[in-house]
């Protein structure tokens, strides 16, 4: 069932990075180091605007962290997010609930919708350009040495990480940073045979038998083979590009603090050690709290509506023995209209009622509560699917526009080349004409001189004959 806080976030345009759809990926503390990295590069007086590539974005939590950090420390910048937002776990190998939930969220088209909602609700949508596609297909099309930071957080299997690293290295500009997530252990900390076995198992996340630490073996091996020992902070790693080499990074003096949006929107139950936002009470607890309020209204006149409580975008109103869910978006309700007609008048989504035929004393609230849960869950999924569909349509439109722009640019280049060729041809023709004219002039001079010579020769011959 969908977390009611997700529904609330969609209604009130707030980012959501809670448990539902496994929206928050990775350890919250890693966002602190991401933010510090941007601060470090800003201190280096990086020229121009920041340009960041993120490979693997999921619900947008890290993209928001990058965007807010760039705003804070660098002023402006652009972020390109590459993800296919489709199921990618082999649940025959990785069968834990987290992988099933992620595959389901991606398969139903929900997670891309949440990504688009989150970046917009966080106020950073204008900085972020999503590209829907697989990294091995998208990255080769990007301009080399074009990004200040390239961040890798996509599939964790060895082959995928190896491919992403190979393609990403060429995209980082001189002095820029290549970084990533989910490096809990470096290869130097593990026995080579143990690492080889864990990689061959093709499992996403395993526990080291010798160290007792959980880690992603594919990430550990791929990073080690490509970069060797890297700078590492609680699973977040980074290296600076220096010519053909990569250097470690020192974040000393930089602000290391979990960003506000992560602390405010994360589940307390998932990361309680970081004192994040307390988990909202479960539906049963809400129902219990509301039921305790009901006796206080038992003496109210049956024709006077009474506000009992609010429930994630709805006011729960008691009128007589029945309870009604009234959406906050419905506006002022005209209670003089018969309650049997209110749903038709305001819409079934805005005015929800229990079925009078199924009502028994004390059951109305529980029935409405369950119905509200089903309605909000269905509405939430519908909204996310619509977000995803619109985003994909806009993405296809952008792809078509990009192709059109590239085609126009190519045609323009061909036209310029043709014009240059025409100019060169004209120049060559002019030079040929000049050469021909010079040849004619020289030829003419030679003919004149030859004529003069022949005339003098004739005069000499004639003179000798007279003697």
How does the helix and strand content classify structurally?
alpha/beta
Basic shape? elongated
Strand content: 15-25%
Q: How many DSSP H or I helices?
A: 13
Number of strands: 14
Helix-strand topology string: HHEHEHHEHEHEHEEHEEEHHEEEHEH
Helix-residue proportion: 40-55%
Per CATH, the architecture of the largest domain is 3-Layer(aba) Sandwich
Task: Spell out the CATH superfamily of the largest domain.
Answer: Vaccinia Virus protein VP39
Describe this structure in words.
The protein is an alpha/beta fold. It contains 13 helices and 14 strands. The strands form three sheets. Strands 1, 2, 3, 4, 5, 8, 9 and 10 form an eight-stranded mixed beta sheet that branches. A four-stranded antiparallel beta sheet has the order 11-12-13-14. A two-stranded antiparallel ribbon has the order 6-7.
